[in-house]
Design goal:
mainly alpha; Butyryl-CoA Dehydrogenase, subunit A, domain 3; 23 helices
Length: 423
């Protein structure tokens, strides 16, 4: 080993010298003997240099020693990796977090590179379930490199970064879907699986909508914690603000708080959120409302009214559509009422949103607005169909008249013919 290292040292010194001679190294880049020597080592010691080109720290002109300490101008391994020169080796746990924090918590230093970058990752991290656990010596939890990788740390805007929205579920799932790792904590391991069946996942991965949430949108990046009962409305409200505002002003706000129930999540779930069906609303057995409201209480009555109102508008839109499409098929001009129906459909969406005010009267305002449009549209559809019938009758009558004329003419011609033959 000793002689091998001596040989290695001699060899790499030669390479460095050659580099200097040709002005390729040294001239542009700071000396980095760590990279040079480690490029020639084997196994895990060689992996960092292999990945290094993809790392943002390299791109920004930082070297191995900026994280690891030591002296990157020395070709002698003892001198290069000298603990007296601050070499810290390969840190784990809290020491690792401190390594990253050396720069990422230093506002003055970071400002030189990127004034808009936050510098609270480490302090936030120690408020998270991960960070608190780490402090107790638990090494199973996520540290900076569990989520960002190491030696190929990419900027968060890079689609290949592990923290890019489309990759986050896999990054968290690496631990949170691991039954063995999670067993001691008695937390479930189905979050990723459920999330992958949700409307959110579909919007993010299939429709490419980067505004749809993944794990960190709801749990935070560095302060990863499950949202508590009181904060759920805020978590969902980041994006669904209209729903949150309505809910917060509704009679359910106080009622759900008192029962200790997590607002939106109680009715919609958290990880596997689906497109809500109209069947959730109302007083049948399968509705959400009937879980708490029973015949006779004011919530029950209003739930029933709300469901009827939404059904009424939905059905009215459907029958308008049917009449107008029949008229269209028959070649009648009905583009205006067809266009007007768009607004009725918007009113239906607004009424579904207004469910969250949990007040039947306010929902009926939107339903009524929609019904006014559908009634007019249906009427125009019927008018168009009546006109079509009228035109058809007109056509039939004129056909009969023409037929009579033709038959008349035919007999007339025969009469004329016979007459001329007789003469
Ligand atoms: C001349 C070759 C050589 C140079 C130069 C060198 N290393 Fe190493 N490094 C080694 C060898 C060999 C090992 C494995 C044996 C050991 O731990 O000493 C190693 C181990 C390491 C480890 C793992 C230590 C651990 O505790 O697990 C780190 C981290 C490391 N080097 C970083 C650096 C950094 C940073 C520099 C530059 C400041 C550097 N090395 C310079 C050869 C070198
Ligand atoms: C952004 C900070 C950072 C930079 C820059 C960095 N490292 Fe590391 N390195 C780490 C951390 C953190 C660990 C511990 C990771 C682990 O245990 O998986 C580590 C681990 C290592 C190890 C031990 C690997 C093992 O599996 O035994 C070596 C060797 C190493 N680094 C060499 C380098 C070299 C060479 C460079 C420059 C090309 C470099 N590092 C640049 C943070 C950094
Ligand atoms: C549980 C996973 C996780 C852990 C642990 C974690 N990060 Fe992050 N980090 C993320 C995610 C996700 C983002 C991306 C946020 C976004 O999309 O804007 C991020 C973003 C960042 C950014 C970009 C600026 C910012 O704040 O948005 C930096 C710098 C960063 N992390 C450093 C760190 C450091 C240093 C640590 C260790 C204290 C750490 N991270 C620990 C998941 C994590
Ligand atoms: C020597 C200082 C230093 C250390 C130590 C350091 N970083 Fe960085 N890091 C930087 C600088 C400088 C940038 C570039 C910021 C920029 O220009 O956007 C950066 C960028 C990043 C980014 C990308 C942020 C973005 O813009 O998207 C992440 C993620 C990151 N570092 C994570 C880490 C992690 C994890 C560690 C510890 C393993 C670490 N850093 C250690 C200085 C450092
Ligand atoms: C390196 C493995 C690892 C990674 C990666 C990881 N976690 Fe964790 N996480 C853990 C462990 C272990 C716990 C258990 C700590 C406890 O509950 O005491 C935990 C706890 C949590 C908790 C608290 C659960 C509870 O009910 O107490 C949340 C929330 C969480 N993680 C979210 C995330 C998110 C979001 C990500 C990705 C951005 C992530 N984690 C990435 C290992 C990890
Ligand atoms: C739309 C928001 C949202 C998304 C996306 C989300 N979570 Fe959650 N998660 C929650 C809420 C809210 C809770 C709190 C539990 C509750 O009260 O229902 C929670 C609870 C948890 C817990 C605690 C244990 C449990 O199941 O109750 C873990 C761990 C967790 N989530 C991990 C994840 C991971 C990993 C992902 C990504 C695959 C993820 N979450 C995506 C909202 C979300
Ligand atoms: C980061 C933004 C964001 C967060 C946070 C978020 N959502 Fe969403 N949500 C969306 C997007 C985007 C869609 C998809 C819209 C589409 O394409 O249909 C969506 C869709 C939905 C749908 C289906 C709507 C439909 O018409 O089918 C429901 C229900 C829903 N979210 C409930 C929630 C709940 C409950 C929470 C909190 C636990 C939550 N969302 C958190 C952005 C978010
Ligand atoms: C008491 C149960 C309940 C609570 C609490 C609740 N919702 Fe709903 N939500 C419903 C019902 C029922 C529907 C379906 C209405 C319909 O289509 O008939 C719905 C529909 C939705 C839709 C889809 C609307 C559409 O256009 O189809 C979204 C998005 C949504 N809710 C988000 C939220 C958010 C965000 C919260 C928290 C602020 C929340 N909900 C709280 C019962 C609830
Ligand atoms: C988890 C239990 C729970 C669920 C589920 C629930 N509610 Fe409620 N609701 C309550 C409580 C508690 C109150 C306040 C006490 C009361 O007035 O009955 C309330 C009040 C109401 C009120 C106000 C009644 C008044 O006094 O004017 C309306 C309206 C209402 N709920 C409608 C609904 C509808 C619609 C649904 C289904 C989408 C629903 N609720 C689902 C528990 C629930």
């Amino acid at each position: 080993m000793q002689t091998f290292l001596k040989f290695l040292r001699g060899f790499t010194e030669g390479v460095v010298l050659l580099g200097l001679l040709f002005g390729t190294l040294g001239a542009q880049e700071k000396p980095n003997t760590c990279l040079e020597c480690h490029s020639m080592l084997e196994g895990s010691l060689q992996i960092p240099p292999q990945k290094w080109n993809a790392d943002i720290h390299k791109t920004k002109g930082l070297g191995c020693a900026d994280c690891h300490g030591g002296d990157p101008t020395q070709m002698d391994d003892q001198k290069a990796m000298n603990r007296a020169k601050g070499f810290v080796g390969a840190p784990q746990g809290a020491a690792l977090v401190q390594m990253c924090g050396k720069c990422h918590s230093d506002a003055a230093f970071m400002k030189k590179y990127n004034p808009s970058l936050r510098v609270d990752q480490v302090s936030e991290y120690f408020t998270s379930v991960h960070g608190k656990r780490l402090k107790t010596g638990d090494q199973n939890v996520a540290t900076c490199i569990s989520c960002h990788g190491v030696h190929e740390i990419r900027p968060v805007s890079d689609p290949r970064a592990r923290v890019y929205p489309t990759n986050v579920a896999d990054t968290c799932g690496a631990c949170h879907s691991n039954d063995k790792l999670m067993a001691p904590y008695k937390i479930k391991t189905h979050q990723k699986e459920e999330y992958q069946l949700s409307v959110h996942y579909e919007a993010l991965m299939k429709k490419g909508d980067l505004s749809a949430p993944t794990c960190n949108s709801c749990h935070g990046n560095h302060g990863a914690a499950p949202p508590g009962v009181g904060s759920v409305t805020n978590v969902c409200g980041q994006c669904h603000s209209v729903f949150a505002d309505l809910f917060n002003k509704s009679p359910h706000k106080a009622a759900f708080n008192q029962m200790g129930l997590p607002a939106c999540v109680y009715c919609h779930g958290n990880h596997g959120i689906k497109h809500p069906e109209d069947t959730l609303l109302g007083v049948d057995d399968k509705t959400l409302c009937s879980q708490c409201h029973t015949s006779g209480d004011p919530g029950f009555q209003q739930a029933q009214t709300m469901r009827q109102a939404i059904d009424q508008l939905k059905n009215s839109i459907a029958s308008s559509e049917a009449v107008l499409s029949e008229a269209e098929h028959k070649g009648m001009e009905v583009s205006q009422p067809v266009y007007d129906l768009i607004e009725a459909r918007q009113d239906l969406t607004k009424a579904r949103t207004q469910v969250h005010a949990f007040n039947a009267a306010s929902l009926q305002v939107f339903v009524q607005a929609g019904l006014n449009i559908t009634h007019r549209a249906t009427e125009k559809g019927h008018q168009a169909l009546a006109e079509y019938q009228f035109r058809r009758k007109g056509l039939a009558i004129s056909l009969v008249v023409i037929l009579i004329v033709i038959v008349g003419l035919y007999f007339k011609i025969r009469q004329v013919d016979r007459r001329s033959n007789g003469e």
